[in-house]
Each structure stands twice: as structure tokens, then as C-alpha cells.
Specification:
Layout lengths: L8 H6 L3 E6 L2 E5 L5 E9 L2 E9 L5 H16 L4 H16 L2 H12 L14 H6 L1 H4 L9 H12 L3 H20 L8 H9 L17 H7 L5 H12 L3 H5 L6 E2 L2 E4 L14 E4 L2 H10 L19 H10 L8 H13 L4 H7 L7 H6 L5 H15 L13
Antiparallel strand pairs: 1-2, 2-3, 3-4, 5-6, 6-7
GO biological process, one term: DNA integration
GO molecular function, one term: DNA binding
Protein name: Integrase
């Protein structure tokens, strides 16, 4: 049996440049420049292999001996210690590349495209809530269509929109993993869709108040509270809830309210500031709300920040009403179609919808502010109790 532990800590420290055996194939190589390396020499399948065990500055004599014992045992099992170490490293790397880790990295990479750098978490939440608790710890390279199917099956037919978003996010994560050089199945989500089948869930539109009933509801918002005033401005401008709730005094210049791009629906970098013409009634509502403003926000909450969308929704729910705040955009659009002769392009741009083909939008250099101003004055007149008679518009 070969002699082991020939070296001592003192000899290791004082040794001149050269090669020094500790026995059992463990060697210390000292270089003239002062550096030193531990090397294990073994014979595997009749072939000699040299395996580095680390620098002397990082690995002590005792640690080198422990490592040598470990890898000699691997040799006794008939395995190549160098290949076995590489295999262990690969498995460790795979463990680090769990679906959760890669999903978080993909989210970070996309934040610049998302509103507010994705701080609201809406992009990530479908994964965080419905996917990662089930398969987040699985290495992304092992994810297949069956894993995805099992994760999303419980909501595929009951929460179709959320399931669709989760599937879309998963597809992005898988492509991100492929870009990282990982061996993933980028078609796994499409295969999962085939396994899940067509969703039986029918999308439900947000309930809207019939346009003929809007004046009576508007009249009932008469107590001058933040919630009543916010709802009034939302109705008068046909704007979405978010820009109304986060409306700042410095966004209003005369009779124009400029909604910053960050508060508009759409991807960051793909939307622009949007000008809203303010009717005389809308300006009156703003003047009434100014004394209630705080920190520059026109519609502050009781404690801090701004009122929530739920605050306005609950007011309508308590009435009780099926309609919700976002539905007033539909009320306005239907009024345009049924009670006016408004050109479709004007009506759609008023709602900040994308109107016209890509080529048409590229050549269009106007937002039809003045045409929209006429329309919004007519809408305000109707909302305040007008007749809703047909409005003859000059086509743009």
C-alpha cells in the first residue's frame, strides 16, 4: 500500500519550487513565481489523469487530502473523477436555472418596456400566483408541455384571461432561457395549449350603463366628494380610470388635459402623451376638486396616494348597479354611434384607441383636438341633461 501523508504543513510552506508527493497520487507543484497548485494523479481505465484540486493559497494541506480521498473513491467505483466533477457542476448549474430563477431574470430584462418599470407587478403576477408555486423549482430545461398543462389546467376554463396571460409569459420565459444558451423546448407552451384544448370560458365585457341612463347617474353624483367628482370627470372625458385617478394639476393647461404616456394603456415606449379637450363642465368639475387636491393630485385618497379604482366601483356596486366605471367609455362610444353622426376615426381617437391602418397612422400628423373638443362639449351637454339629439359632425 502506498505511503500517505508524506508532507507536513511546515514543509509545504517552506518548500522551494518543484514537485512534492504527499502519497496516493496527491502532489504539490510549486512554481518559481511563488504560486503553488495541488494535483491528483490517478489511473482510470488504463489512462493516467491529472486533476487540479486548487491553489495552495485557497486549499490547505488537510483540505487537499480530503479532496484526494473523495476523488480516489470515485476512481475505485470505476469513474473518471474529472468527468464526474464536470457532471456535478452541470447539475448544480441546472439547479440554479429553475423556472422561477429564469422567470425573474426574464422579468428584469423586460422591465424597461413596462409601465413604471413593472413595479406594479402585473406582468409577473400570473406566473407568481398560478405557475411558480407548482413548477417554479423545476429546472427550466426539464419543463415540458405536461408540466405547463398541469399547472394551468385548474384555471384554463375558469380564469381564461389570466391563464392566457400566464401562458404568454411562460412562452417569453422559455425563449429567454433559450437565449441564455439553455436546452429548453421553446414550443412547450404551444404543445400545452393543444393538450389543454380550447377554453370554454366566454369573455365577459365590463358592464356598461346604457348611454340613455348616464345623465341621471351623473346628476346623482352631487355631494362634491372626491369619489363623486372623479367619477364625473371620468364620464365627461371618457378616459380610463388610471389617468383620472392620477390626474395632477400640472397636467392641466387651460382647457387641455395632457395625460402623460406612463398613465396611458400600452407598452412603455409605444405610447405617447395624450391630449384631452376639456368641456366647460369638465373644467367646472376640476375647479370644484381643486380645494381637495393634495400633493399635486386632484383626487387624493383619505390616507395617502390617490383613490383606487375599487373606490369608484364600490360606489356603483352599493347603488346597486351592474355597471362599472370603465363601462362609461362604452356608454360614450355607443352614444357616438347611435345618437350622433361622429366619424369613427374621431370617436376612436377620443377613446385613445389606435385608429386607421399602420400606414395611415404613419402619415397622420394630427390628434383632431378641435374636432374632439366639439364632440366632448356635445357629450357634456347630453350628460348634464340634454336631449341626446343627433349631432351633425363635419367629417375630418
Amino acid at each position: 500500500m502506498p505511503t500517505l501523508h508524506k508532507l507536513t504543513a511546515k514543509k509545504v510552506e517552506k518548500a522551494d519550487p518543484g514537485k512534492y508527493s504527499d502519497g496516493g497520487g496527491l502532489w504539490l507543484f510549486k512554481r518559481p513565481d511563488g504560486g503553488a497548485q495541488w494535483v491528483l494523479r490517478v489511473t482510470v481505465h488504463g489512462r493516467r489523469r491529472e486533476m487540479g484540486l486548487g491553489n495552495l493559497t485557497e486549499v490547505s494541506l488537510r483540505e487537499a487530502r480530503d479532496a484526494a480521498d473523495k476523488w480516489r473513491a470515485v476512481v475505485r467505483d470505476g469513474k473518471d473523477p474529472i468527468k464526474e466533477r464536470e457532471r456535478i457542476k452541470r447539475e448544480a448549474a441546472r439547479a440554479d436555472n429553475t423556472l422561477k430563477a429564469v422567470a425573474e431574470e426574464a422579468f428584469e430584462a423586460r422591465k424597461a418596456e413596462l409601465k413604471g418599470d413593472g413595479k406594479a407587478g402585473r406582468w409577473f403576477s400570473p406566473l407568481e400566483i398560478h405557475v411558480l408555486p407548482k413548477i417554479g423549482k423545476v429546472p427550466v430545461e426539464e419543463i415540458d408541455q405536461r408540466d405547463i398543462k398541469d399547472a394551468l389546467a385548474p384555471i384554463w376554463h375558469t380564469k381564461a384571461d389570466t391563464a392566457r396571460k400566464a401562458m404568454n409569459r411562460l412562452s417569453i420565459v422559455m425563449r429567454h432561457a433559450a437565449a441564455m444558451g439553455l436546452d429548453v423546448d421553446v414550443q412547450a407552451t404551444e404543445k400545452a395549449k393543444a393538450l389543454l384544448g380550447k377554453s370554454r370560458h366566454e369573455a365577459q365585457n365590463i358592464p356598461a350603463l346604457p348611454w340613455q341612463e348616464v345623465p341621471n347617474f351623473y346628476k346623482s353624483l352631487s355631494d362634491g366628494t372626491v369619489t363623486h367628482l372623479a367619477l364625473r370627470l371620468l364620464i365627461l372625458t371618457a378616459a380610463r380610470s388610471l389617468p383620472v385617478r392620477f390626474c395632477r394639476l400640472d397636467e392641466i393647461d387651460g382647457n387641455v388635459w395632457t395625460i402623460p404616456a406612463k398613465n396611458m394603456k400600452g407598452r412603455k415606449g409605444q405610447v405617447e402623451d395624450f391630449r384631452v379637450p376639456l368641456s366647460e363642465e369638465a373644467l367646472a368639475v376640476i375647479e370644484q376638486a381643486k380645494p381637495l387636491a393634495r400633493d399635486g393630485y386632484l383626487f387624493p385618497s383619505v390616507r395617502r396616494g390617490v383613490i383606487s379604482d375599487a373606490t369608484m366601483s364600490r360606489l356603483m356596486e352599493r347603488r346597486p348597479m351592474d355597471a362599472r366605471p370603465h363601462g362609461f367609455r362604452s356608454s360614450f362610444r355607443t352614444w357616438c354611434a347611435e345618437a350622433t353622426d361622429t366619424p369613427e376615426q374621431i370617436a376612436e381617437i377620443t377613446l385613445a384607441h389606435v385608429a386607421g391602418s399602420k400606414v395611415e397612422r404613419a402619415y397622420r400628423r394630427t390628434d383632431y383636438l378641435e374636432q374632439r373638443r366639439v364632440l366632448m362639449e356635445r357629450w357634456a351637454g347630453f350628460v348634464k341633461g340634454g336631449t341626446g339629439e343627433v349631432l351633425q359632425m363635419v367629417r375630418a
